[in-house]
Amino acid sequence: MLIWIWLGSWQRQIAEQELRAQQQLQVYRATLVSEIARFENIPRALQSHPVLTQVLVNPDNTDVITRANRLLEQLANDTGVEALYLMNAQGTVLAASNWRQSHSFIGQNYRFRPYFHDALQGSFGEFYGVGATTRVPGYFFGLQLNHEGSDQGVLAAKITLLELETSWQPTRDLVMVVDPDQVIALASRTELKFKTLTPLSPQARQRLDRTRQYAPMPLTALAVDSRNGHPTWQGKQYRVSQLELPRRQWRLQLWWPSRPLMVNATLVTAVAGFSIVAMTLLLLYWRQRRRYIQVQLKAKNELEYKVMERTSALAVSNRQLERQVEERFQAEARLRSMQHELIHINRLAALGQMAASVAHEVNQPLTALKNQSANTLMLAQRGMYPQVEESLSTMVRLVDRIARLTSQLKLFAATRRKTRGLCRLDEALDNVLSWLSPRLHEQQIRLVRTPATDQVLPMELHALEQVLANLLGNSLDALAGREEARITLEAGDDFLCLWDNGPGIAPSLLDKVTEPFFSTKEAGQGLGLGLAIVRDLVEASDGRLEITGSTSGGARFTLNWSQNE
């Protein structure tokens, strides 16, 4: 019975697969015929073109040849033809669309091709083969071209079918076009192309060598075994569906694997066998079920009594757990309330620190501005106007300094904006040193500037000044009281690096120092905003801030834009 089920399933699947294969072949044939047909009228459209007939009349006229070359080149580009070329009655190419290319057909002789002879005899020549010059396979058309008072000639067109073959590749089946000599002319797999299904006879090989149809391909026979009349290739057994093609007496074949059908038939048989066994087991189970239900009814009564006892005990435990859960919820609510109060207190403390720091930093330039104003008034009274102008410039710089000090808080509080731009490093550095130089001299800190500080960096001037002011200020604080203190500055096209020989930053704090209000300084000495502002400004300019240890023992800050261009 199982054998009958297997055979029925196998035959039904074979018939269905053959029907699907024939439908696929119809689609492949229509596509192939359409691809060839859309180009075959191109030679007919050019058969009477005056530029081409003039070439046959004046084959030695360079200007005529050039016009013909350009005409064929333009038509080939517009139509997508691989090549268009004009041959004289002896088969020598006089003009070609690829005349500018290294593998130009001009001067080549193709009288050995069958399409040339067919065209000279008045027929429409067609031929498929490997290009004698380019070694690229293609489909050739040939048409006689003559004009009163001129010699005969042949206008030929070559198209490539490589894109069509590429569209066949995704299918798991093998699609191929076989010519009358059993040569595989087109295939969905490159290893099948230009193989033969059967060994070539000496007469067929001599004929193919004479026309150079597949030269220099060796045309070796495909390693195919036959089992029960069906081919086996690379360890897989196939069934072959075939459809005749009127052109070139080709045959379109579709090789589809038969093993999946055999596996499906086996699965169907296994399912049927399993169903029979399952029905038998179901009858046995029904008998055992009756006995089992009787036993279960007795056990159920006993179990219900035990469940009632256990439920009573669980109810007592559940009430205890509910009280514990309620107490825990209350404790968590108190904890959240305390956390909110602590956050509020921290915010008030941070605001106090920020106000104190801003007042301290702004006080110095305000005092200097007051003194400078008195000095300016005195100079004006004495008529020392050049000094008055210089004093006013100094006052402008002091006002700019106050604006830069307050801009830190504005930058930290405001929504981030883009700071991408271009500015000179030396200009920004000179502006920052105009108010940091006193601290450098007071602490006897040496600033080492590399020769490339005139570098242009991809950041706005105001933002770069803010970055330098914060980084140099942190280094000055870290080097306080240190002998032979040194700050080094190095720059390139897409990076800026600053490091010192101070105590450095502990490795465990490297990921925290850029967080807002985080500071390693003593209370009241800083807001903890400097590195947070630096990081935001650098990232807003499409850069990256890297903080590492320095070989000299201090901290190293690198602004890198190299991976964001």
UniProtKB/TrEMBL annotation:
Please give the catalytic activity noted in the UniProt record.
ATP + protein L-histidine = ADP + protein N-phospho-L-histidine
The record's keywords, sorted A to Z, are: ATP-binding, Cell membrane, Kinase, Membrane, Nucleotide-binding, Phosphoprotein, Transferase, Transmembrane, Transmembrane helix, Two-component regulatory system
Cellular localization per UniProt? Cell membrane
Cite the Pfam families for this sequence.
Answer: HATPase_c, HisKA
Q: Where is the Histidine kinase domain?
A: 357-565
Q: What is its EC number?
A: 2.7.13.3
Q: What is this protein called?
A: histidine kinase
Instruction: Please tell me the species this chain comes from.
Output: Oceanisphaera sediminis
